[in-house]
Structures are given as structure tokens and as C-alpha cells.
């Protein structure tokens, strides 16, 4: 090879090596970009699956720990603690008849219903973790009812000089929550009943013109 052609050949070799190195660099950059894209894609799928799992776990946990309110015929039943007398309930001083104000009392499954002569009286409900009660006749004699928990129902606004309830003194129910109801008597214008429950519960109260219905439901 002549001296003239050798430098040209050397330049061609150098140029080829540079182009080869440039091509290798471009391929390396392309490979790294492709790897980063694959990694980000995998991370994205992983984050999505993790978020989905957390959402499902959260939903399951909420469903397991949230107690739904009791329902009857589509209506939500809420615990009651007291109630006011209806506008048609006569004041004790205006009641002249000696007829008991409580006309009847009935038990059916988890409900206790009382009917009154006119209107409905004020009432108070007291829950307790046992089934031991005392009479309201002034003597305070002990009375027990079936079950493991109880609710005392006290009616207010009666005449204090007459017997305001003369019906059955005890009622048995098949529940499943309400087990038994007993009359605790009354004094000083009050009348009360004891309800025995199979487990801790309360009463949701519904009223009509002259009746009060106590629907017993599990405690929330």
C-alpha cells in the first residue's frame, strides 16, 4: 500500500470504530430506556393491585364491624329512653273515673303493647345488665324475670289514689329477645313493668292514639 492511501485507510478504520461505539451507545441508551419503561409499568401494576387490595380489605372490615340498625317492615328501629304524654292524655286532677287507665297489656314475640283509656302517658325506660327488679308499690319487694338482662318501663301521670292496672301480672314470650314481662305495681301516680331479655337490649317505642308498643331490639 502506498503512503498516500494508508492515512486514508486509517481514517476509515477510526471512523468505523467511532460509528460502532456510537451505535453501541445508542443501543445501550435504548435498552436502558426500555428497562426503565418495563420497571415503571410493573410498579404501576403493583401499586394498582396494592390499592385494590387495601380498598377491599377496608370495605370488608367496615362491613364486619358496623352493626346495622334493627328494622321492622322497612322502618329503622332506634332505642328510646323516654317519651312525653300525648296531647289527649288527661291530667291526673281531671280524671274522675276510678276505672284503671291501662285498659290492656299484651305480649307477642319481641313486643309489649299497652292500650289506655284516652291518649298515652309519659314514660321512662331504664336498661340494666341483670333481671332483678323491685316492686313500685312502696314495699320494694324483689321481683325477678327470665333472661339475662332487663328493661324497666315506668309510666307517669296517673292518679295516685287508685290501681291503674288490674290485668295479668306476668307475660311469657317466645322472643327471641323478649322472654318475660312482669308488672311491678305502682304508687304516687306511677305504674311500671319489668321486661326480661335474653341478652342486653333496649326498646323502640311506637304510639297510636291510645296505645304504646315497645319493640325490644339488641343494644347497638
Describe the structure.
The protein has one helix spanning 5-65; strands at 71-72, 75-76, 82-83, 102-108, 111-116, 122-128, 132-134, 142-144, 149-156, 170-172, 178-183, 191-197, 201-207, 211-218. The protein is elongated, with a radius of gyration of 41 Å. It is α+β, with helices and mostly antiparallel strands and 220 residues long. It has a six-stranded antiparallel beta sheet, with no helix packed on it. A four-stranded antiparallel beta sheet has the order 4-5-14-13, with no helix packed on it. Strands 1-2 form a two-stranded antiparallel ribbon. The longest helix is centred in the N-terminal third of the chain and has 61 residues, at 5-65. It contains one helix and 14 strands. A hairpin with a 5-residue loop joins strand 10 (170-172) and strand 11 (178-183).
Brief synopsis:
The chain is of the alpha+beta class and 220 residues long. 28% of the residues lie in helices and 32% in strands.
Rg calculated over all Cα atoms: 41 Å
Helix percentage range: 25-40%
Number of helices: 1
Find the structural class using helix and strand composition: alpha+beta
How many angstroms does the end-to-end distance come to? 103 Å
Return the average pLDDT rounded to an integer.
Answer: 79
Q: What's the total count of β strands?
A: 14
Percentage of residues in DSSP E strands: 25-35%
Amino acid at each position: 500500500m502506498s503512503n498516500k492511501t494508508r492515512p486514508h485507510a486509517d481514517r476509515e478504520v477510526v471512523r468505523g470504530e467511532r460509528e460502532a461505539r456510537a451505535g453501541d451507545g445508542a443501543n445501550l441508551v435504548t435498552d436502558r430506556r426500555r428497562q426503565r419503561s418495563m420497571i415503571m409499568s410493573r410498579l404501576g401494576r403493583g401499586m394498582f393491585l396494592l390499592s385494590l387490595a387495601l380498598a377491599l380489605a377496608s370495605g370488608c372490615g367496615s362491613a364486619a364491624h358496623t352493626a346495622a340498625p334493627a328494622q321492622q317492615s322497612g322502618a329503622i328501629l332506634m332505642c328510646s329512653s323516654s317519651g312525653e304524654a300525648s296531647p289527649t292524655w288527661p291530667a291526673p286532677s281531671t280524671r274522675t273515673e276510678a276505672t284503671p287507665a291501662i285498659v290492656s297489656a299484651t305480649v307477642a314475640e319481641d313486643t309489649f303493647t299497652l292500650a289506655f283509656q284516652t291518649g298515652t302517658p309519659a314514660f321512662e325506660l331504664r336498661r340494666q345488665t341483670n333481671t332483678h327488679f323491685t316492686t313500685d308499690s312502696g314495699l320494694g319487694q324483689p321481683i325477678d324475670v327470665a333472661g339475662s338482662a332487663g328493661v324497666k318501663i315506668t309510666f307517669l301521670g296517673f292518679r295516685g289514689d287508685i290501681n291503674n292496672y288490674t290485668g295479668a301480672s306476668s307475660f311469657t314470650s317466645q322472643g327471641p329477645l323478649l322472654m318475660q314481662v312482669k308488672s311491678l305495681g305502682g304508687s304516687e301516680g306511677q305504674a311500671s313493668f319489668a321486661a326480661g331479655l335474653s341478652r342486653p337490649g333496649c326498646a323502640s317505642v311506637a304510639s297510636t292514639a291510645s296505645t304504646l308498643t315497645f319493640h325490644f331490639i339488641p343494644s347497638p
